[in-house]
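Q: You know discrete backbone vocabularies at least as well as I do. I have my own habits and do not want them to colour yours. No explanation is needed for now; the record alone will do.
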Amino acid sequence: MRSRGAALSSIRHLAAVVREALSTAWSQPVASAVTVLMVAGMCASVLLTAGRTVGAEQAVLDTIDSAGTRLIMVRAEPGAGLSESVLTRLSDVQGIEWTAAFGPAMDVHNASIPGGTKTPLRLAWGEDLQELVSTQPGNPVEAWASEAALVQLGMVDGLGGVVDAWGNDFTLAGPIEVPEHLASLEPLVLAPQERGTGTAPVSILVVVATAPELVTPLSRVIQSLLAVEDMSKVSVSTSESLVAIRAVVAGELGSHGRGLVVAIFTLTATLVASLLYGLVKLRRKDFGRRRALGASRRLVRLLLLTQIATLATFGAALGCAGAAIALTMSQDPLPSVSYFGAIALLSVGVGVVAASVPAWVAARQDPLKELRVP
């Protein structure tokens, strides 16, 4: 009970300090407005300069990533000995986001058009294929086709069947949207298969890493787990060059953005500290009166810092909103929400730190001396 009472007392004390800080800020509209505008300008300046750079950086990186910076593709020629059992060996490897194995291409054509245009069909294995097809692999003669493959087969409605050169029929179950990492397999017709004995031949293994920087180490691990009979018939292609370009772009734009942030925050912190120092000197009688009435130095510092923190919060919100509107109207890429939040939090922190020296000066005012000032 005693600890609960102490907690309630602390909450009431803090609420009283906040009310007093707000009352003081309201009684000084000009100084409060200047402080809010300064912090808002700081936020807006950072977001319209460094924030625009961060948004552009993210847009560039997204473009590079869309080109497959996380892709590892293994191609095995006939006789290499690569089988679908490789998926079992890769199942415990960390850093893999998506993987699937594809068998050799088999030419198929529309069963309703004898001698029609031939399109490659591949048997496919992997649990991640469920992201492409609406049902789990179960029917070995059920196939799914991309839009390009359907056009080539003459099945724009996505219904019908295909047959290979040996007379094996596959029923088309529906269309699929081909992701970026499978674009090189277009036109794509795949028949998802259940995992079997692990001896089915695989000609293409597709692996997507969780992060671009994992491509190089993952490619080495994957090569060690292929368990092929003839490694000379296996080629591994990765996006290491794109990863290197990505790192350079991120480093150059990131360093430029950090320099702007530091410069703007330093300038604004100096202006806020100067403004508050002048206000403290103008209000020295008020602080002296508070000290004479029993206010501790700690309380005086807390009042001033709370006042600045509150005003800085309003200013940060105003600056973020204004910058977001300006960037949207100019059709510039917006930085992430977390970046907006970080800049707002940093702005409030800079305002509070800048107010620490004036707050210390205010708390050190001699009540007897200041009350004698006419």
About this structure: The mean pLDDT is 78.
